[in-house]
Amino acid sequence: MISWVVPYPTPEGKTHNQALDDLSKLLLAQGYEKDVPYCVECEMYVSLPEMMPVQKVFHVILDSDRPASCFLIPDKDQSISITAEKSMMGFLSKLSKIFKTSPGKTGNLEVRGQTFLYRDFCVRAGILSYGGVIKGVIVEAELRSCSILITAVELMKEFMSTFMPTPMDTVPSYISSKPNILGAMYSPLETIHQYYDIFASVRAGRSLVSR
């Protein structure tokens, strides 16, 4: 399966929740069936200065669609990202003298929404929030009948153009920046990286831009 993750633009004069509601109605009108809720959440871990003179930061992402796994992405060198069993969270809790999580809820990001299914196509549409503050709408479009990205680029553009407000004429920025993955077997970690790029933009205070 192949997934593209992009922000969904909220029309002027509408709230993000209204935009999500309109998108949900559109998908149902197109023949999609509502399936299970989903959640993708990200927590940041920062090394304590007394333990590491050079600060180390990594992010842990959990995806309800992959309940047995967790994903660790370093802040600097994302090429050494790790996919691990969710039991890794227990190990991380024992590193509290070395790493701390972001205080309170200020560092937590999450996307919560609904899954919609139609034949080989799946759309997950949800609200992105940062520390409890709504930041926008995120869409994950999944093609379940293909696992080699380069063979599905045009089909993915056509698929997403059926529900995005404007034609999907480019690929998500993470995928366009990693041409080496085009001919390789697509993995769930590529989807997680697309979420991470959006989360990093929000943490940096940048506006969400579709694509």
From TrEMBL:
Q: Where in the cell is it found?
A: Nucleus
MF-aspect GO terms: transcription coactivator activity
Q: Which GO terms describe its cellular component?
A: mediator complex
Record's keyword terms, sorted: Activator, Nucleus, Transcription, Transcription regulation
Which Pfam families does the entry link to?
A: Med20
Which is a GO BP term held by this UniProt record?
Answer: regulation of transcription by RNA polymerase II
Please classify the protein's predominant subcellular localization into one broad category: nucleus
Q: How does the annotation summarize its subunit structure?
A: Component of the Mediator complex.
Q: Which family does it belong to?
A: Belongs to the Mediator complex subunit 20 family.
Protein purpose: Component of the Mediator complex, a coactivator involved in the regulated transcription of nearly all RNA polymerase II-dependent genes. Mediator functions as a bridge to convey information from gene-specific regulatory proteins to the basal RNA polymerase II transcription machinery. Mediator is recruited to promoters by direct interactions with regulatory proteins and serves as a scaffold for the assembly of a functional preinitiation complex with RNA polymerase II and the general transcription factors.
What is the name of this protein? Mediator of RNA polymerase II transcription subunit 20
Gene that codes for this?
Answer: RvY_13740-4
